[in-house]
Amino acid sequence: MTSYQDFPDRPDAAGRPPLPEYPAAAREEPEQQPYAARPAYQVRQQDAVPQPGAGWDPQPAARPTPPPPSPAPPAPAPGLQPVPPPQIGAPWEPRTDPGAAPGSWSGPGGGGYEGRPGTEGSPGTPGPYEPRPGSPAPSGPVPGAEPGFSYGTGSSPWGTEPQLVPTRLDVPALHDNPAGYFGALRLMHGTVAPVLLEGDLPAWLVLGYREVHYVLANPGLFGRDSRRWHSWHRVPQSWPLLPQVAHNSSVLFTEGDAHRRRAGAIADVLAGADQFELRLAAERAADAAIDWFAGAGRAELVADYAGQVPLRVMAALLGLHEDETAELATDVALSFDDGPEAAAACARTRNTMEVLLERARRRPGPEIPARLLAHPATLDEEQIVQDLLALVTIGQQLTAQWIGNALRLMLTDDRFAVTLSGGRRSVGQALTEVLWTETPAQLVIGRWATRDTQLGGRLVRQGDCLVLGLAAANTDPAVCPYAAPGLSQASAAAPGAVANQAHLSFGHGEHRCPAPAPEIAEITAKAAIEVLLDRLPDLHLSVPDSEVRPRPSLWLRGPAALPVEFTPV
């Protein structure tokens, strides 16, 4: 796997100096003393090189002399520090100031969203909010909150960089040409860009390969527990991203020893699946799906095939009945969309997992639910239900998009066409290429900073939300060995610059896909494509490639439909 330091001396796409080298031992900078304990404009030594767009002035003499800083606590030893229990911001109290902008919000001490110097110990106009010790928490529940967790409004992520103009993520350009969209953001902001999620909620979009790799490799600095987010007070109950962000007891939101225990149990259970039997199950699922449309001479491959094969394989692993499989397919697809039906679909999928668990308790067998119940990790029922949900929804959907993207490539790219000698590039080559250029999970929300830190030249505050741009990282011109769709071949890295499996499509670090999961997905996808091309050798798109539209999702990348024609059989 390519590491963060494989490219330490390359400038980013905007021509900015290379990122500071992170300590090799822990891949994480030592914790700095709190900002309240030093003048707000005093810059750490490693931050002293001004970056384009920085919101601070590196010349202390140009500002009034601040009051003496309070004594700083002893600096911790370098290395990975223990992560405290997640705290979702701090209580805040509105205040009215003559110079405060109505409706703006800021960080501790009143640092301004408009960028006025207003952090503790510095002169200037304070922001419109300031902390009040002991103030009550805002009304409204925090999803997944537990006793002992406090929350509040937190700070603006761009308080020190007022000239940053955040970009809304849900724009047509992201759907139509994601590589071009991410490239434009790199030119504008560098490798870490300010963005607005649905409802104008602020976040950082991590675009660079090195930066995404670094975030994934440092769970102590960028945690997975979403209760750290300082903006929960702004999230409405109807927020469409709530199913993906609200904390629950699944393995996706665990950290540290708890995560290793849970992920280890899932890996053990998946490793028990025989790969030869998996291949046979995938071939049977592919044949069954093709039988439905083989005589018609036309089909829509996304709904009728790419989504069906991985779901049937997963159904066999879980012990689902045939009638349960069809309903689950619809609910899993809806749960990943951004529409109003996502929450109801998630609830129905959960109910199906509860039925499976009860069935496994009454009649234990070789299926995944029964094996999780019997695992030495002693998971409770709620944990198993949540982990089954993660396996079904993520496993089925990502594999389906992977199949759809590879099929589209093979049906439209001359390199994969059958030649006069009967040869073509392999299915395996197509599957590998689309993991780089059309990764199924293009954006992942997210990670939450456990303390103030630097990333890509930006100051990331504790509690800030980070959206990981896996598609942007994989198509980063510094590492991608292929030309991404919509870009020229010149955008690809030199051949051999990275190993062809160095993509981040399966994640990296503690929260990467459990080791057997990518193998199961690859076996399923490869069997699905090979069986289809073997049974329908003259398969071709029935519309021009330019009319194939992407799925309308921020998070998943795949064709919305693949209409094809072939000789009826």
Automatic annotation (TrEMBL):
Residues 106-115 have a biased composition (Gly residues). This is Cytochrome P450. Transmembrane segments: none annotated. InterPro entries: Cyt_P450_B, Cyt_P450_CS, Cyt_P450_sf. It comes from Actinacidiphila acididurans. The lineage of its organism: Bacteria, Bacillati, Actinomycetota, Actinomycetes, Kitasatosporales. Residues 1-164 are annotated as: Disordered. Residues 61-88, 125-141 have a biased composition (Pro residues). Belongs to the cytochrome P450 family.
